[in-house]
Amino acid sequence: MVLSLDQCFWSKFNFCSEQRSQFLFSAIAIFTNHGATSVRHWLSTPNLLHIIWRLMASSSTHRSYPPLSAMESNHGKHSILMVSDFFYPNFGGVENHIYLLSQCLLKLGHKVVVMTHAYANRSGVRYMTNGLKVYYVPWKPFLMQNTLPTFYGTLPIVRTIIIRENISLIHGHQAFSTLCHEALMHARTMGYKVLFTDHSLYGFADIGSIHMNKVLQFTLADVSQAICVSHTSKENTVLRSGLPPEKVFVIPNAVDTTMFKPASERLVMDPIVIVVISRLVYRKGADLLVEVIPEICRLYPNVRFIIGGDGPKRVRLEEMREKHSLQDRVDMLGAVPHAKVRSVLNSGHIFLNSSLTEAFCIAILEAASCGLLTVSTCVGGVPEVLPDDMIVLAKPDPSDMVHAIKKAIKILPQIDPQEMHLRIKGMYSWQDVAKRTEIVYDRALKCPDQTLLERLSRYLTCGAWAGKLFCLVMIVDYILWRLLQVWQPDTEVEVVPDLNLSRSNCVAQVHPSNVSS
């Protein structure tokens, strides 16, 4: 009878010999030696911890890495999973970055799959331009387009997508993306190499920043490589996460110059139109606009404002417009789809960016590519974006911003939109970004493999108490992953065939002179 039950049990779960010995080690130690009535005693003593430690130590040499076909397929071409809570149909710089980078990586011959949460009725698998495959997993946003943190709730679907798509490398985007942090954690548990791109700057003093920095320290403690979009962003990320500087690379954003180009005919200078395209939130300086716009309208009767974007601060701008009777001089467009941004930019002369913190700001590049003179707050990585003759910088102060706009209006007749467009075209290219990112991918895949115990030692350096908590989180993640392997072995997950399409030209022109390692 015992033999038949044993045969039935092992055939049910399809244990290999090593998994069988590991399972029997813990089960026999608890039940055979002391009986079922002693389980509570085992849970209240260090013996259970010793068993778990022995279990992990014995399995530390048995690591599950990507199959050889994923690691070395297509002669050095990679299968990349982009993960973030921020992707189309949502609008923003991170969304554009992921999409445009993915398109150029596809053009270079790599396989790219995007994973994000569901948006309204958009759920399941969708295909975009050039066969870009997007998994809209059935998780609804909880706060500010972020999914609810579950730690382990996303493990089954992340594991399935990675195996199903034969992924060799996972690339997460944005520090406050919950889905990004969880996917990177699960991928490292499974033995995959992971990258992280930070698109934002954070402080060190307020409670929110302290919490976010600790989460980032946890995620980056075991990351293979990291990318930042500016040198200022790199310094900020290294300070916040404790990541060695040599593991962080600076690859700036770019702009699609074939899409963002000046109007065929130059606009007349009367009236002068100042364009603002931004999310209307505190971080983007919407409160500064409330004070700056009435003063500029008072000083220059021939100036109009066009404001594109939506957010919680839109109410304040609407109140400002009514208070100063500026309905005929301040147009509120609401959320502007990315496909219509160029037409909005081409209706203006000056682009105004009032951000209080900014790692790079793609919107400045898009405006400059359309031939607009930019006025921006001098924060974060903004001074690295454009040369001094293409941008007027100001302190994030209403009076200083008014002075900068006055200076921009004075030099506006000297600006040649077509010449500015050509200069941007020579400086920034998404093809350049893709080639440089490809180099970082190669370096990540060459990083040495590590056992579970070696990885846990990294988390212990994250703090006296936080380090132990992080280790516990990873141990539970490891155990759950092992249970998933038992319940559904990797061989039972169907691998989908690759979709081969003839690649069209990338969204940006190739500039070999800009490519560097």
List its salient traits.
single chain; 517 residues; alpha/beta; Rossmann fold; 3 domains; 8-stranded mixed β-sheet; 6-stranded parallel β-sheet; elongated; disordered N terminus; disordered C terminus
Describe this structure in words.
This protein has 19 helices and 16 strands. The protein is an alpha/beta fold and 517 residues long. Strand 8, helix 9 (207-220) and strand 9 form a beta-alpha-beta unit. The strands form three sheets. The chain has an eight-stranded mixed β-sheet, with helices on both faces. Helices cover 43% and strands 14% of the residues. It folds into three domains: 2-59, no CATH class; 78-254 and 431-451, Rossmann fold (3-Layer(aba) Sandwich); 272-427, Glycogen Phosphorylase B (Rossmann fold, 3-Layer(aba) Sandwich), CATH 3.40.50. Helix 6 crosses helix 17 (430-445) and helix 11 (286-299) packs parallel to helix 12. It starts with a helix and ends in a 30-residue tail after the last helix. The longest helix is centred in the last third of the chain and has 22 residues, at 466-487. The model is unreliable at 1-15, 17-45, 58-64 and 508-517 (pLDDT under 50). It is an enzyme of class 2 (transferase). Pathway: Glycolipid biosynthesis; glycosylphosphatidylinositol-anchor biosynthesis. Keywords: Glycosyltransferase, GPI-anchor biosynthesis, Transferase. Its EC number is 2.4.1.198. One of its GO terms (molecular function) is phosphatidylinositol N-acetylglucosaminyltransferase activity.
